Structures are given as structure tokens and as C-alpha cells.
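FW: tagging you since you asked about this chain on Friday. Here's the raw sequence from the shared folder, copied in full. Didn't touch anything.
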Amino acid sequence: MRTDEELLRLYANEKSEEAFAELVDRRCNLVWSAAHRVLGDADLARDAAQRTFTDLARKAGRLSSRSTLAGWLYRAAYLHAVKMARTESRRTQREQDAMSIQELSRDDAAEAKAVAELQPLLDAALGDLPEADRDAIVLRFLCGQSFAQVGAALGVNDDTAQKRVARAVEKLRESFRRRGVQVTGGTVGAALGAAGSQAAPIGVAAALSHAALAATAAGTAFPLIAIMKIKTITSIAITIATGSALVWQHHALSRAEAENAALREQSAQATAPAPTVADAVDPTELARLRAEHDELLKLRGEFGLLAGQYASATQHLARAAAPRRAMPAARPAPSSEVDIQVATQESLPVIQTMKQLGLAARIFANDNNMLYPTNFSQFAKESLPPTETLGTYEFVPHATVLNLNNPNLILLRETAPRAVSSGGFVRIYTLADGSVQTVTSMDGNFASFEQGRIVLPSDQASAPVQ
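HL: got it, structure written out here
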């Protein structure tokens, strides 16, 4: 498969519209989603994407010598979107529309909230990174490329590419910390993954390619009539596509996640620091933005303080729940059932770690032909909990190869059940679909939950799960 740079050189040297169309189709999601996170509106994001690809066509000769084109496309789309956002005021309606998005499950709500809260800050934090680090993150997360593909684009091997991406993620986490937001590397990775999952509406790529080439040939700024044609063509394509249930099922989740992230960012978008641009800024508007920015920094500082207090509390709970090989004796239970709220509260550090490991396992499976890891050495270093607590968790052996087609099987679990202060026992499980289950038992026997979620050899299929 030809690289982005090869396609652009082919267009610059031979005016190959087929090569340019292939390049636009490949990077349409990257450009559209970058603009959509800033603008929160599909039509405006499409216009920003159009301007980006028009610039690309006009500057093809100069840009064809770049080693990494994806980073330039991302930055250009972001700057176009920021400039357009200054004249738009459509946030109120989008915030009301957020009420119609499906409510997140209780188990995933905390992580989803943290990921969503990072979306408004993501592009500004990326803007703080050096170009080489930003290119590595754009290729890995926003373009969805494997470490082998990232290494090929950057001219390094797979291991070096993985280390470079890990360092870039750590720098991005440090950028969030300077903004008063304390997050883990796993949460930053999840936020980048959510940003990269945003997909442009069906039909946009073809419309953008034709319009960009037309605008370049005319030698003028992108005309209003071309914008109207793009919207009309895209609307027809979307109308046809919605008649197919298969297409809807394939895109529904990514669109819902994209809309959710965009709607959550609106309250902070107006005060997010804008990049330096050449055009003049109205002094009154600049003063208002600075005042709002100061207020936002104050709120972020308060949020960072609360996040630090929460992290301290979870560390205290983690030390109290040190790995135990032998099952402790249960305290007398006041009733015949374990208090699930108490069990969940006492398991918060374990639940967060199991969610992080589950996400890392799914990323591994996506990069390895749908197969899950079988030991912790296969995980990226930043995905692992502290070494002293690693023995708290274990992979569950199965008589079959575990992959993404087995979403209900158990991938990981706590090494041993833990006693609950109110009586009974609790054990945390991570399933192959990435969900985390908090399971309680009065006597410490979890066979009823594990039955059917662990694939045993045929000669043990009828035996009780240990």
C-alpha cells in the first residue's frame, strides 16, 4: 500500500486525481474528527475539513517532501476549526441534545466521564507537544495505525516506535497535569482512542476530494456554492446509507461516542486557549476571553486538588487491600447477602486497575489478529499496575484461544477473594469485552458466576469450577 507521502507526490507531479482521492479517503476521519471536536457540528466540521484538503491540494508540491503528512493534516484542521469557532454560537442546542444520548452503565461511568472530560482539553494539550511526539500520537491513536506502521512512517523499528509513543503519551499526561488535571497514562490512552474512533459521515470523503480539486483548479477560495453541493451530496449519501441496517450498526457506536465527546466539551470550548494565528483579534473580545480563561484555570486548579485527594484516598485503600494468597476468615454478616455498595467502595482501586488492564488487552487484541494476551509481559509497560501489586491479578486459563469473538468469557480476575467489612467476600473480574464485574459471595465460593464463563477441557466440562 502506498504511503500518504507517495500519494501526494503522485498528485503533485502527475496531477493524479485518483491518488489525491485515495489520500483524502484515507485521512478523512482524522481531519473531520479533529475539526468536529472543536466545532461540535457535523456541517461546520465538514467545511473545516474541506478547507484543509483544499490547502493540501494547493500546497502539494511543497508538502510532498514532508516525512509525516498526517501530523500536518491534523494541525491544519485544528487551526481552521478554531478560527471558525470564533464566529459560531450553536453550543446551547448541542448541550440540550446531549440528554438524548444513551446513559452509560454504572461500571463504566467513572472511566467514561474521565475520558469525556479530557476531550475539550485534548487538542490544546497536543498543541503543547513537539512535532515529533505529536506525529507519533496522531499516527498511533488518531489514525489507528499499528506500531509497525508508525515505525515505518517515522523511520524506526517497532520497539522504538512503541517507546516513542509511550514517551509522547507521558508528555501529554504531564501537559494535562500542568492544566490542573491529574490522570493516568491509561486514561490518556483511552481518551485518545475515543478521539480516534470518530468517523466522518458516509459520502464526505468523495465530496471533499472533488470539491478540493475543483477549488484548486479555479484558484479561488472555497465558494459557497461548492459547500452547498457538498452538503447536498452528503445528505443524499447519508439518506441512502441509513436504509441499510448493516451500515447503521457499524457506525452507530462511533457516532454516538463522537457526539457525546463533542457535546461534553462545549462548556469549556469557548475558554480553551487558542493557538497563535496571524489575523487580528478584537481587543474587547480578547479581554473577555482572557477573563474566562482565568476563571477556567481557577476551576481546573480546584479540580486538580480534588483529583489529588481522590488519588491519595485510592492509594490508601490499595495499601489496605494488599495481595492475599490465603482466603481470610469472613466476619459475621448481619444479613444473608453481602452489601454490594460496601463491596464496591472497598474495591475501587482494584476496579480501576482491572478496567485499565481490560482496555490494554483489547488494544493488544486489535493489533494481534483479535487474539488476547496470555500473560502480563505482553502488556505495554505503562498499562501495568505497580509491580508490588501485580500478584493481585491473574489471567484465567481456558481450553480454547481467547479472542474478540468470546466477549463473555473471563479474561482476568483477582488472585483470591477478599473479605468485605460488612460480611462476606468480593472478587473482581474483567471479561473479554472489557467490562468489569464486581461479584459477591457469602461463603467465598464464586463457582456459580464462573460456570459458563471459563472454557474447560472436554473431560472436565462437567466438573465444578474451582
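FW: The beta strands are 393-395, 410-414, 418-419, 425-431, 436-441.
HL: agreed, and Residues 100-104, 220-253, 267-281, 330-334 have pLDDT under 50 and may be disordered.
FW: great, closing this out.
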